[in-house]
């Protein structure tokens, strides 16, 4: 069977590089087009990454393959939908706002940008959590008259939180969550991202817009699609958070306080997470991990450096599950989620895999 | 007027060094005795700090004065109360348990150790917050038949939290607080303290016993001394926290969610903290800062590296005051408190200053 | 006596902020003009530092005074030499190339930029090392027909090296030096400077152009002005270096191997540095430290975090003086020099102080 | 073919854990005995790693296998040579001094400890560099009357230096080397190793005994075994170095200045390293990398975080090859070598593989 031909827009940036690394050797998706800004167009991808002072600006740990380095970069504006079966988008929100709808007229767009996350007809998919929201893309196509559609992936800080809340919602109900994040630098990208002098021996207690994203997206992701598949009702969970930046390379740590809908014990909460298998359709996708959540008994875990790569960076690790004593049916725990794997490129690829399994793609 | 003669036990450790630095040039306390383990006894203080490979193990940023370096170290066991007016104690809890009562039979002991913090007749003083608890030392003397007493300083993570809660308790009442700390390495001392390989590019989500200390101590500090001065009733505030360690040298950052006893606005909460002057007796002590709390408008503050030294490390800096939306009358904010100044040695000295102002010392 | 009126160009950047901090309360220089790019012109300095998301981009540890925050920023292009007695320049090399000569036509310009460092008629002054080069500014004025002149300060990595070589050159002669630097992030500024993700858990083994600067500047600084004061002959010392970047905030560490011109012992080399007082004229300037070099006996020193602030960041600290065994009359040592104090703004102010003491300024 | 049965002494420490990780799935060596201090004896290995506060003290990135966790730890003193074919030793030098000779009476001991490195009849093997020294173990057996022998691996800082010097020695001759290291924390182990507060925002310019080890070991490794195989003549290369510690997890960076024995160009030096295949016997061992040295053109490389894992941590990466201009036939370059893989456990295993290929083992 021929592989699906995918274009990647925003290919030279950090997020784009993560898509390239994640799609290498994918069983049914082949990256056949790399698009970037006009400045890079016409160059080989390897040359496009070379800076004035001789550096190759390739930042992910997997090496850049010679084949990819030789691919010729095209301008995002010149990208033709007819040459591809789908598009992955790693551009900034303002570029996404113009580029993604143009492409979605004809083919599916899987995007890491926030531009369309909050539109009513756009699902925000985390396959194990809300695969059931996928049919909303039909409504999106109908309403917008598109042959394709846009499916953005959630904010990276939301992903780990939503994954760990899902089994609690299913088993006990969840009324409220208060979360403090200790986020990695990679979430800020590289232009300029987090400056070394600002983060060494320091904590930055504010990440613009992040808290609002987590609060809105969590409700949307945990919400319910109505019977007709045309409208999403957000979950009525109340979410409040404080998002901070710490001197960590990759892997967001989150300190979660949660109020459940019914009584539970620490053992039951732990068991609910451990036994959770998530949506059926998401269980055996090429990018699915063995388990979505790993609960650790060692009280010093999870730690971002030790645990972020669990199951290829696709699992959320959890530890320190305890009763909270303040909230009604309150529990608290700490989670680590890989913000640039499950929380970004690989998460977006997982969504494409899910939609294909559901017959909504290609 | 002759200065009060103070002995310091645990003089060679990191906490002890902080006492030495903080007492240099004190207006009415003079460090006339330095005690440490028998291994150091008989050596000059400078020699006691010298390690086998030639290093001088002096770790605070203020330089070690030649006079202090020349002082002869005595063994803690050999310390005679009659030679001093008071003692500062920077020993570990297990040593404190034996040593401090022996000395307190005759003279006041101000301690950084946790050994006696939870005893009913022992006040846990933060001068601006609960100077009114000080008379409990009379009850302690009566009950134990001592001429001196023990006054421990609170856990360093509790201090910043209690300082910021105090004005809210006074003005609005506080029902509950949920806190996540991002604590500095210096809180763990140096034996071995936090190992470099464990904290670079990482977060450690657990600090043994820390959360329990914060929960119990906060209630005690905010509690009320009964009319007779013989018993403390803890505040009924409910406290839940998760304490983590980050790659910061000094200065604990805390993300606080608080449920007030009555309605308020962000402006009123901010104003309550800004206008708070604390207990009258604590306002003009030698170690008192200009203000106990500084509320910052820049949303990227407070940051531990930039703000920990505010007013000599004696002020708690606060920022990001916002409504919380989940808790009843809920607000959230971020604070930074200097864990080894206000939260340790200098805080303990401040307590001694308060007791002297109240006529309870010397 | 009226103070000298100084303008600062490049006032909003990190280097400019360091000039502002260093000139606060200067005994005879007053900062009366702050210039920056047209984008900032017309705003108060405090407003010019405020970013779109509410942050005040003030990065030096000394607080920004309210008086400075209220000063109105003017555009560098609009700066009029007649309003000032001298100018400090903290702009990038390309801006310096246009702006500094325009101002130098009328008044002295003390610059942190590299634009004119290598011109034959431009001295590169480190007051204790080569105050004797200062008369070269007369030649510069004559040749260029200027009333003012340009005196750049050396590259920050060169400064500590040249300061420690000076006593060796004077006492033993120096034939060659091989140096490896471990440089702080602050040397790279903030636009974007060193990105956090690149430096945590890492070393960057290349700093563009840095090594060439050190090699050329060291020879020039240690050179000799001819009798007529019209030409500088570089020292024939051979210099080779490798410059790297490490995860340090401030303070360059340098590992130096040096070949002396005559036999010496470790004690003599140490003594030569310890006793060195430098040029007479530089000994009691307002910014002069008690000693230019501090040699430490503790083999674990100097360390950048512990020693960079020695004598207000104006001293170079040295340790680990040993025989080398490979080079002829070879010795090796480690130095720490504060790259943004002695090695930048404060060093440039020191030069202005020297020239005034020599009657070459104002 | 039955696998060789290996015991590991010092199994619970960091170095021991690295041996366990490196020997997992080894084609012909099986770890059948784990020895540690009497405190751990009798416990399962997993239990021996568990600390009082619930942490599992397993520090290498590869997970601990359940099979290994279940193995029962024996006391080093109780270890019987007859149960094994060889021993890997990861104990401290003082323990090694007693334990290793006792075992070597009967079976070969491959050690990471420095205790016997400098004995005349003990080779210091880096297989690609000096496999030819291996027959010295016969002399060691003869002289000491042992059936086994001790082969220590070199100091981790020496390894990368010796590997890069080897092709230069072979092609051009090398007269002298001056090296400054920027060493990772893992080299210091964990008891307590490098304390976080000492290394964040800092450089430590001294590592006790390290420089002497590098100087002596480099000469020995590059030396020649005489015709009879009974004596090693050290190479007459002169070596001088300064060893520093930086805030890097793994991977030593070294800035090298080298004086060659004959004229060369940068291209020739680069080519000599690139084409070097090392000793024939070492080319296809199970732990051999594709190439021993990778020379990079990007001037910003090698960097420890990006390059330490090259070819499984067994390759030395080199960059910035330039003429030096000071030394006779002088060149300079930067290298990165994985100090706990090629420079420790995996390097020691490689030596065992070599000796087996040479018929000197089992």
Automatic annotation (TrEMBL), chains A, B, C, D:
Name of the molecule in the record: aspartate-semialdehyde dehydrogenase
Superkingdom in the source lineage: Bacteria
Enzyme class: oxidoreductase
Recorded metabolic or biological pathway in which this protein acts: Amino-acid biosynthesis; L-threonine biosynthesis; L-threonine from L-aspartate: step 2/5; Amino-acid biosynthesis; L-methionine biosynthesis via de novo pathway; L-homoserine from L-aspartate: step 2/3
Family per record: Belongs to the aspartate-semialdehyde dehydrogenase family.
Free-text function comment from the UniProt entry: Catalyzes the NADPH-dependent formation of L-aspartate-semialdehyde (L-ASA) by the reductive dephosphorylation of L-aspartyl-4-phosphate.
Any matching Pfam family: Semialdhyde_dh
Keyword Transcription: no
Residues forming the catalytic site: 156 (acyl-thioester intermediate), 252 (proton acceptor)
UniProt-listed SUPFAM superfamilies: Glyceraldehyde-3-phosphate dehydrogenase-like, C-terminal domain, NAD(P)-binding Rossmann-fold domains
Annotated ranges, domain Semialdehyde dehydrogenase NAD-binding: 5-137
UniProt cross-references to InterPro entries, sorted A to Z: ASADH-related (IPR051823), Asp-semialdehyde_DH_CS (IPR000319), Asp_semi-ald_DH_pep-lack (IPR005676), NAD(P)-bd_dom_sf (IPR036291), Semialdehyde_DH_NAD-bd (IPR000534), Semialdhyde_DH_dimer_dom (IPR012280)
A single BP term in Gene Ontology: methionine biosynthetic process
EC annotation from Swiss-Prot or TrEMBL: 1.2.1.11
Species for this entry: Myxococcus llanfairpwllgwyngyllgogerychwyrndrobwllllantysiliogogogochensis
UniProt keyword terms in alphabetical order: Amino-acid biosynthesis, Diaminopimelate biosynthesis, Lysine biosynthesis, Methionine biosynthesis, NADP, Oxidoreductase, Threonine biosynthesis
Family matches, as Gene3D superfamilies: Dihydrodipicolinate Reductase, domain 2, NAD(P)-binding Rossmann-like Domain
GO molecular function: aspartate-semialdehyde dehydrogenase activity; NAD binding; NADP binding; protein dimerization activity
């Amino acid at each position: 069977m021929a592989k699906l031909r995918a274009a990647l827009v925003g290919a030279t940036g950090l997020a784009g590089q993560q898509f390239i690394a994640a799609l290498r050797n994918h069983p049914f998706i082949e990256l056949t087009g790399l698009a970037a800004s006009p400045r890079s167009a016409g160059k080989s991808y390897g040359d496009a990454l070379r800076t004035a002072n001789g550096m190759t600006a390739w930042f992910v740990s997997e090496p850049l393959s010679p084949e990819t380095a030789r691919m010729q970069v095209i301008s995002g504006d010149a990208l033709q939908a007819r040459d591809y079966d789908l598009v992955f988008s790693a551009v900034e929100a303002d570029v996404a706002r113009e580029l993604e709808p143009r492409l979605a007229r004809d083919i599916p767009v899987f995007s890491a940008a926030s531009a369309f996350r909050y539109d009513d007809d756009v699902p925000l998919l985390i396959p194990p959590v809300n695969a059931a929201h996928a049919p909303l893309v039909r409504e999106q196509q109908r309403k917008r008259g598109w042959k394709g559609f846009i499916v953005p992936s959630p904010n990276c800080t939301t992903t780990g939180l939503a994954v760990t809340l899902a089994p609690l919602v299913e088993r006990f109900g969840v009324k409220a969550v208060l979360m403090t994040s200790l986020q990695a630098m990679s979430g800020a990208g590289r232009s300029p991202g987090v400056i070394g002098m600002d983060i060494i021996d320091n904590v930055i207690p504010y990440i613009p817009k992040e808290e609002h994203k987590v609060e809105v997206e969590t409700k949307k992701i945990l919400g319910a699609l109505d019977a007709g598949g045309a409208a999403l009702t957000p979950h009525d969970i109340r979410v409040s958070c404080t998002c901070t930046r710490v001197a960590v390379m990759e892997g967001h740590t989150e300190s979660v306080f949660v109020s459940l809908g019914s009584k539970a014990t620490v053992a039951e909460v732990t068991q609910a997470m451990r036994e959770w298998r998530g949506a059926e359709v998401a269980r055996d996708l090429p990018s699915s991990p063995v388990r979505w959540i790993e609960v650790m008994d060692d009280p010093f875990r999870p730690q971002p450096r030790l645990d972020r790569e669990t199951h290829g960076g696709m699992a959320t690790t959890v530890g320190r599950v305890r009763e909270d004593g303040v909230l009604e049916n309150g529990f608290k725990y700490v989670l680590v989620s890989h913000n640039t794997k499950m929380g970004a490129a690989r998460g977006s690829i997982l969504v494409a895999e899910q939609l294909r399994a559901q017959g909504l793609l290609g």
